[in-house]
Write a structure and sequence with these properties.
The protein has 342 residues and is an all-alpha fold. It is built from 20 helices and 4 strands. 63% of the residues lie in helices and 3% in strands. Strand 3 and strand 4 form a beta hairpin.
């Protein structure tokens, strides 16, 4: 298990891969770092940028070992097939400060071709909500289906309960989107942002996307929204619920997956999350740790005392976010709702 920040007490073997990537980038000049970052996806850049901003007291031997590990891994590769995604502005400002980030962003984005929809990914959730607030509900649903689930969930918090219900049910009912619909949406957004034409239908939305958005909502909002969906369409609500992955579903993850997940979760977050877990899940966690680590965790759990339910739910959601990210990258496999999601 690892914390985000690198401290003198941490050896490189205990640093997460995100911390190691952050250390590697911090050893490069801004130009080289920019060239690497522009080939990463938005989630990768967010995570690495956050780690970069948290790094402190990194030892020279850690830097040398990170570089050594990187060179060893690269030596086994035949190529670095990376897709590009141009949304890094907010994270770089947070990680590097306004002045440094602006110069880096300019070099990354020169010649970039960002559609109106992609530009929304750069924006604060409240701003996205304001932009689409007066659009047709189907347009709102397409935007929610296009954005990453956690961003969509945050955007939806700025809408009234009835609007959230309508949007999510439309997301669940989406299958493919005609190019004319996407072009219409880009035309709307081009008043402020650049857009380009889509020449073919795009798979978008569906029950799985709706479930992912639900997973990222606050627990109270999620429960109310699920009840409302089932009142309107019981079958739709059940299918969305079946695809949702909740903390208790970690019981269904294999031991290797649990071990990989634990390496990415801080001890403090795990302790708080397990305060709300049953004995079966706690034992599954314990058995996938070293005997000494399990004993320490048991002691910490007993010593922690009462914890607010909201804190427990927040910690569990943080772990689930990590688990879903690892599942998306193929590092682990999640089993929820009677079927596996990768």
């Amino acid at each position: 298990m690892s914390n985000t920040a690198a401290t003198p007490e941490k050896s490189v073997s205990n640093l997460s891969r995100v911390d190691q990537a952050a250390i590697l980038l911090m050893t490069l000049g801004e130009g080289d770092a920019a060239e690497i970052l522009k080939h990463m996806g938005p989630k990768e850049v967010q995570r690495i940028g956050g780690a970069m901003s948290s790094l402190s007291n990194v030892q020279q031997n850690d830097v040398q070992m990170v570089l050594g590990n990187f060179l060893e891994e690269v030596r086994t590769l035949t190529g670095l097939g990376m897709g590009s995604d141009s949304y890094i502005r907010n994270m770089l400002v947070t990680a590097l400060g306004e002045d440094k980030a602006n110069g880096l962003i300019d070099r990354i984005l020169v010649g970039g071709n960002t559609t109106g929809l992609d530009t929304l990914k750069w924006m604060e959730a409240r701003s996205v909500a304001d932009i689409i607030r007066n659009e047709h509900p189907q347009i709102q649903a397409i935007v929610m289906a296009y954005l990453d689930a956690d961003q969509s969930a945050e955007v939806m918090t700025y809408f009234a309960e009835k609007v959230r219900l309508d949007i999510l049910m439309r997301v669940a009912a989406l299958d493919t989107v005609q190019p004319s619909a996407l072009q219409e949406l880009n035309d709307i957004l081009e008043k402020q942002f650049s857009g380009n034409e889509t020449s073919q239908t795009k798979d978008m939305g569906g029950y799985k996307v709706a479930a992912e958005i639900m997973n990222n909502l606050d627990s109270s909002v999620e429960a109310d929204l699920m009840d409302a969906i089932k009142e309107v369409d019981e079958d739709m609500g059940s299918q969305i619920q079946d695809l949702m992955f909740v903390f208790d579903n970690l019981k269904e993850v294999d031991d290797r997956g649990i071990q990989a997940l634990l390496r990415e979760v801080s001890s403090e977050v795990l302790i708080i999350a397990l305060k709300g877990a049953d004995d079966i899940l706690q034992e599954k966690i314990f058995k996938n740790m070293s005997k000494r680590a399990a004993e320490l965790l048991r002691d910490d759990l007993e010593a922690k005392g009462p914890v607010k339910l909201s804190e427990v739910e927040g910690a569990q959601k943080e772990i689930l976010t990590i688990a879903r990210r690892m599942a998306d990258s193929g590092e682990i496999m999640l089993g929820g709702g009677g079927e596996q999601m990768v």
